[in-house]
Design brief:
- The protein is of the alpha/beta class.
- It contains 12 helices and 12 strands.
Length: 333
């Protein structure tokens, strides 16, 4: 199993700046976040090559810097960014297709099952084992679009140890099976997704906090897509459960989330995208800790060494030792 990985490091469209800097270039542990992700992917056995989308000049400098450059034993390519996340993802896909060349090409019938791992550039605590586990589980589902989830419990190590101490608390989705957060891992067969244009909007509204955007998307689901009424019901119910949960009414959120089964959300997303959609749950938790604001960045920078060590130990306990060690070349030589 060999799959190309696409690292989304663009700073246009819905991308957020943190302390006035594009997230992928924030320094943690002595190197930019995008360098952490590229280095981590070197040790994922299922990843064959890496395509990084963003500011081509800045990315070139990051990839050429030591010690990262010496650790790159898999091919790494830079793709100039477009105007938003969807265009970046599609541009990279067009280039990674067999025989595409430097300018890329549109997929043909032979490319319907060509898949790629898409991963965010701002994940300092993702581990190779967690990414590998996600890819293997997603491939077994044989779907067109698999999105990673982590459990609320798996992120507990990032919480403040006591009131007033530095920690990170991530918002979660309230579902019947538990509370989850999206893990920034996506295994996709882009050519099989009919309504690809919804992916950008789903990304923009992934935190379910901007009510106007939520209502606008819900209305389009009701009026434009098959199964619109059912989609609207579960979408708004999940949004309401998230709102009351964030306001501290956990018991009320527990009541509401009983009516939002994970399988029904999968079915709704499949209807929306007009492609088979599934969730994949991993337990290490690090791939869900992205850097979206100044507070989380400052805390992650402060506790990077401690949390990195804890995540490495947790990943090994859950999934075993790395099949491909850090910086170790693949194959003979």
């Amino acid at each position: 199993m060999q799959i190309p990985a696409v690292v989304t490091a663009g700073d246009r469209g819905a991308a957020k700046a943190v302390h006035g800097e594009s997230k992928g270039y924030l320094d943690i542990g002595g190197r930019p976040l995008v360098a952490h992700v590229v280095a981590t992917l070197q040790s994922v056995p299922e990843v064959s090559e890496i395509w990084v989308v963003g500011d081509a000049e800045r990315l070139g400098s990051v990839l050429a810097a030591e010690p990262l450059h010496r650790a790159l034993h898999k091919p790494v390519y830079v793709v100039p960014q477009q105007t938003n996340l969807y265009e970046n993802a599609w541009s990279a896909y067009r280039r990674l297709l067999s025989g595409a060349g430097g300018s890329g090409r549109d997929p043909g019938p032979e490319d319907l099952d060509t898949q790629a791992l898409y991963i965010s550039a701002d994940l300092p605590f993702a581990t190779p084992q967690e990414i590998s586990a996600f890819v293997r589980q997603a491939c077994q589902l044989d779907c067109s679009y698999a999105v990673g989830l982590v459990t609320e419990e798996s992120m507990a190590g990032f919480l403040p140890a006591a009131p007033g101490e530095p920690g990170i608390q991530m918002a979660t989705f309230n579902l019947r099976e538990g509370r989850f957060r999206q893990s920034n891992l996506h295994l996709v067969k882009p050519a099989r997704i009919v309504n690809r244009h919804y992916i950008e909007e789903m990304y923009r509204n992934r935190f379910q906090r901007e009510l106007g955007s939520v209502i606008a998307l819900a209305w389009r689901l009701l009026t434009s897509e098959r199964g619109g009424l059912g989609l609207l019901y579960y979408y708004l119910l999940m949004h309401c459960a998230g709102v009351v949960d964030r306001r501290g009414h956990r018991r009320l959120a527990d009541v509401l989330r009983r009516f939002v089964p994970l399988a029904r959300v999968e079915a709704g997303c499949s209807d929306l995208l007009r492609a088979s959609f599934r969730f994949v749950v991993t337990e290490a938790g690090g791939a869900a800790i992205d850097i979206d604001n100044e507070h989380d960045y400052d805390v992650a920078k402060l506790r990077y060494a401690e949390w990195s060590k804890l995540q490495a130990g947790r990943a090994e306990q859950l999934y075993g030792a790395l099949a491909l060690g850090p910086g170790r070349p693949e194959g003979p030589g």
